[in-house]
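Sample entry (351 residues):
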Amino acid sequence: MHHQWLLLAACFWVLFMFMVASKFITLTFKDPDAYSAKQDFLFLTAVPDVGRSPGETHFPEELKPTGKMLVEPLVYAQRLELMRNVCREDALRNLSHTAVSKFVLDRIFVCDKHKILFCQTPKVGNTQWKKVLIVLNGAFPSIEEIPENVVHDHEKNGLPRLSSFSDAEIQKRLKTYFKFFIVRDPFERLISAFKDKFVHNPRFEPWYKHEIAPGIIRKYRRNRTETRGIQFEDFVRYLGDPNHRWLDLQFGDHIIHWVTYVELCAPCEITYSVVGHHETLEDDAPHILREAGIDHLVSYPTIPLGITAYNRTKVERYFLGISKRDIRRLYARFEGDFKLFGYQKPEFLLN
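Predicted structure, serialized as tokens:
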């Protein structure tokens, strides 16, 4: 009987050791992409592969936004090199170059205390970056204490625009400050702008529905008997029209939510320190904070799980039913944004 108990105890011990060893092996060889070392405020998202086409400017394999932790430091230098190369292409000059006008300078926010310039590209998570700069400028002690209605109130948020300085002061800051901006797949950004301004309108900005939308419908709706509010097809037709500028002038600064990154930030005229990508923001945000020398002072706000992932299905669904002619005209306008930042031509334009 004694021997039977000893044998039973030995079996349990062997089984226990086997379970411990299995758990250790699982933890050791677990997919590193499924866990973030910065899990206190960084979350992992995956970015589906996007189709390629001959003649397109592409990321090298290590440069593509994949959502993998961590993005190699070399990627940030490659992004800048890609941008410089595209800026030199004569064939794309009209799509990649713009004057550093007051319109551009109005988009760039200044943090003199830490020598930072941030160019705002709406619909790419810019509200959170503005919160970071508001704290750095000392207007509020922490991001959590900033009232939402203050973030975009430029009389209360303590964020000066670069356009508010003299020409000499502007040039000094452009030459010596840390400069960055964030980009996103251009078509997905346009969908986000359409949903935010014309469908949901969460901040109650009635001019989008009652002034801008009717202006677009009057000019670009093909079926004049249709009485529905603005549709994405109307929006695409407006944006792809080579003569869109006459409406842009009527709409004023509201167009910042859908004009090109080139028009917003003049990436071929201003030498930026870092270009972040919305699709890899979990990696890019801490990198930007480190490069700017402020990572010990502030953290980028928590990124909800999955919010930065490229949603190819959503993009294809929105463009379903829109004529190829209208989509091609839209792509022709935003081609500079696609190529400057390594985004690939949508698959539904390749067929």
